[in-house]
Amino acid sequence: MRYSAFSVFRNALDKHRGWSSAWRFPEPKPHYDIIIVGGGGHGLATAHYLAKEHGITNVAVLEKGYIGSGNVGRNTTIIRSNYLLPGNNPFYELSLKLWEGLEQDLNYNAMVSQRGVLNLYHSDAQQAAYTRRGNGMRLHGVDAEMLDRAQLKTMLPFMDFDNARFPIHGGLIQRRGGTVRHDAVAWGYARAADARGVDVIQNCEVTGIQRENGRVVGVETSKGFIGCNKLGLAAAGNSSRVAEMAGLKLPIESHVLQAFVSEGLKPFIDHVVIFGAGHFYVSQSDKGGLVFGGDIDGYNSYAQRGNLAIVEHVAEAGLAMIPALSRIRYLRSWGGVMDMSMDGSPIIDRTPIDNLYLNAGWCYGGFKATPASGFCFAHLLARGEPHSVTRAMRLDRFERGYAIDETGRGAQPNLH
After folding, report:
1. Are 71 and 336 in contact (CB under 8 A)?
2. What's the rounded Cα separation, in Å, for the pair 102 and 95?
3. pTM, full prediction
4. pLDDT (tens digit, 9 = 90+) per residue, 268-285?
5. Dihedral Cα 131, 133, 136, 140, nearest 10 deg
6. For the chain, how far is it from start to end, CA to CA, in angstroms?
7. Residues 121, 159: contact at Cβ < 8 Å?
8. Which of 61, 234, 252, 356 is deepest in the core (most CB within 10 A)?
C-alpha cells in the first residue's frame, strides 16, 4: 500500500481498518545471495539499495531483536556533513543529500527537519579551527557559514554569552543539517526493502559463521543454518563479537554512549546547538522535549545503559551553555553501544576472508551516515569494489598508516 493523503482519507472512512502491515514476518529461506547481519539503519538501508540500485532481492536482513531495538533507535537524531577531511567530507555530504530525498524515496514520513547545526567557538584558536573546517567544507561544495557573537545573540538569546570560563564568541553553522526521527528511519527502510522482496527476519540471532575452504558459506542462527553467497556485517557495537565468529579480530572497541530527553517545553531552540568548550549537543523534538548528549562513558561495555558520572558531566556542560536548563527535569536516558575505531572514522571494506564484508567503526557518526552507509555498502556487496567516496575507509588503513583522524587525537578510540 502506497502512503498518501488519499490513502489516509480513504482509510479514515473505514475507521482505519484497511491498513496492512508495514512489512512481512517471513521465516528464513535455506539460502540467500546476500545475508546482512544487523537489522539497524545501516543493514536495512543496505538491503534497500541492493534491491533498488542493483536489482538484488534474494537478500535477508537478520536482526537478533526487533526492528529499531539497537542503535538506530538509541541516538540523538542529528544529521550533518560538516567534516573537514577528504576521507570523510564527500561521504557525509552524500549521506546528507540522500537524507534530503529520503521521504520521497521510501514513501515514508521520516520527519526530516533541516533546522541547521551550529558549532559554537569560545576562543581565537577555536575560531581559526572552525574557519579552516568551514573553508574545507566549501571547497567540497558543502554549505558553511561563520556567525559572529552579535548574530548568535539574535538567534539564541538564552545562551550564556558572558560565561567567565567559556564566553561564546561565535559559531560555524551548516544550515542544511538538522534532525530526523530515528524510529521512522528504521521503519521506512524496513518497509521499502520488504516491498522489493527482501526478507527482514526479526528475533534471529547469529550464533556462528560457517566457512568452507576459507570461504564463508552461511551462518548459524537461533532459527537454524542459513546459507549465503556473500555475508555483510552491519552489527554496530556488536561487530567485534560477530566478526570473531569468523576468526577475524577488528581494530575497534565497544563503548556506551548515553542520550537524554527532558520534559516537554514550549519551543525555544530552533537549531541543533553544539557546545565548543565541552562535548554537549542539544536540539528540541517536535513533542517539546530537549534531546541531548555528550561523551561516551569511556569504558568497554556492551550494555545499553551508562553511569551517573556522564550524566553529571553532560548536565554541567549544558548548564554552562544554557543556564535555564537547571530548571527542567530529565525524563529518561538510554544508551547505544558504539563501535569506536582507532581513528574515529568508519570502515566499509572487504575482509581478508572470502565473501565476508564489513560495515563498522562508526563512533559518533553512525546515525547521520545511515543512507550513504547503506548505499555504499550495497555497492561494495553487489560489485565487489568500494564506492568512490569510501575508498579511504579501508580495514587495513591502520596497518598501512593511512588513518582518517578527523579530530587529530591519534589512535585512541576513547578520545574520538
Report:
1. yes
2. 10
3. 0.96
4. 999 999 999 999 999 999
5. -120
6. 43
7. no
8. 61
